[in-house]
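Sample pair:
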Amino acid sequence: MRREKLATKPLPKLAIPKPLWGSHDMGRQSGQRINSLAHRTLTSALQVLHCIYNRFMFEVVASVAGLTAAVAAGYQTMAPTGQWYGRTFIGLERGTKKLALTYDDGPNDPHTLRLLEILAQHNVPATFFVIGRFVAQRPDIVRELARAGHAVGNHTFSHPNLIFASAERARKEILDCQQLLLETTGETPRLFRPPFGGRRPGTLQVARTLGLEPVMWNVTGYDWNRPRAESIVDKVSRRIRGGDVILLHDGSHVRMGANRSQTVIATGQVIAKYKARGYEFVTIPEMMREAAIR
């Protein structure tokens, strides 16, 4: 029996679906568009972040700058050699062989009188910035200062920190001391030193309208807390460069009778040391006249 071959039909071709984007080229173009969109989105986001960062940094820098300026301004109100708030006298050119001893917060019994003895022994003049309320208590000491040829300056009536005082209060403090000194010595003071060295622009303006020249310092013995004489001399010696205005204290703004014995001893040692090196001690008015000539 013959087997018949089974008739076979060719299989139909399967229809392969086309990509959604239609073709390979179209897919590539679409991908490029997506990448471009992503790039633009990322760029925009980065720009926004950059702006935020810049603004933040600007605010930080501005805050730091403001704080720095405030600190500097505050420092200048008390800095002895600062000149932001007006010119003050702080000495001659560096290297000049002249020195000026200045004393604050007197008259003080008995140490101002003991200091007068030391200065007389060395034939050295000095400048004393006195407090009005102590002048009222011991006018005889102030008259002795003037009689001995020392310069006497205004240190206000009650020694307030004038940074916190109104122009009216500053004016009254200075005028009250000025009047007392005129009555006591017969002369109108020409020098003014603000208590604690504290001042602002209005402070110096008030002083100048009253005919006073503001005087600060550039060397100090840090003697207000009563260290030993050797320490006072050491601190002064470390800073002297010539032409200096030296700050010391013959009294205390707190009360009459403060112990300034170590300052008296240190004064004699400083004078002996620098006279031996060829320095001359002068008053502030004498130093100012030389500065004007130069």
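Residues 1-7, 19-23 have pLDDT under 50 and may be disordered.
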